[in-house]
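Tutorial handout. Part one gives the primary structure; part two gives the three-dimensional structure as tokens.
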Amino acid sequence: MESRKLYVGNLKYSVTEEELEDLFSKYGDVKNVRIIHKKGFGFVEFNTLEEAERVKHLTNGTVFEGRAMRVEDARPVQPHFRKSR
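Part two.
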């Protein structure tokens, strides 16, 4: 699956959206950044699929703030279904 949005995992909880944008803007034109606070992951979106794919391969496994990042295609949001009792 190819996506313009990348999942970035294994981040320190203290990493900010600005820091993540600064890091990824060295590799491509960042369209949007979103950190999920207190979860250790976030999302970085690029303008094109080609750019996101290239950045994914360049950054996956690289160390940022002392931790090896996991960078992969972001999965589409799945709806949550509740079981009725």
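Part three, for discussion. The chain has one domain: 5-73. The helical segments are 17-25, 49-59.
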